[in-house]
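Chapter review: from sequence to fold.
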Amino acid sequence: MSRHLLRADDGIEKGAELLTVDNISLSFGGVKAITDISFDIKKGEIRAIIGPNGAGKTSMLNVINGFYHPQVGTITFRGKKRSRIRPYEAAGEGIARTFQNIALFEGMTTLDNIMTGRMTLQKRHMLWHAIWKGPAEREEIEHREAVEQIIDFLEIEHIRKTPVGRLPYGLQKRVELGRALAAEPHLLLLDEPMAGMNVEEKEDMSRFILDVNQQYGTTIALIEHDMGVVMDLSDRVVVMDYGKKIGDGSPDDVRNNQDVIDAYLGVPH
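The token string follows.
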């Protein structure tokens, strides 16, 4: 197994709680986006967060990585409890994510986009990189080697020098996954990684997500609307509706939960 894509051992055993969400509530003015939700994510698992549009799923990811600050509740990540954190701090602690809408630097190449994911791992001061000799040069080479491994892993060697703005949608999504992997996350947050993809692209992305989880041991929290994908990939599923948790358990448990069935069938509340 490559030494890249893996941070130092955090001392948490596989199957133990990596992240815990405790009684999180989030409001925007008078609108309640999340209401008193609790769940956990165990190290090494793929944890799906599902629900109808407007259920508060993306808001939950935004709380976890510090983009939103909840009015009530705490997040515990790798044993550290907090009520709020900034996104750059979350990234430094080992939380990486992708987005519903692709957020890449369109004029930059695939390689350079993925290189930006290494920024939180750079140890040399900006002045060293301006000089680009000695330690900074060695660090740059090491980071580029890690990025090349990710490019090989995602099977995108043929587009490594292509500006991402020229790439089709499915490949852009793969590049965005690569950039998140470049940060060597303890926890990878994927916000609708299959959205807008055709069947073949979904199959490829599903394979890469499983490989990231199984080969590198990366813990994944996944928002996805394709229930076939969710049931095939996930170890456990938490279900949200109108900002509340209405189900939590194995894919089979959730599939047979009447509240979940009602929410997806549009039964009035």
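Two observations follow directly from the output. The longest helix spans residues 135-153. Strands lie at 17-28, 31-42, 46-50, 72-77, 80-82, 95-97, 187-191, 219-223, 236-241, 244-249.
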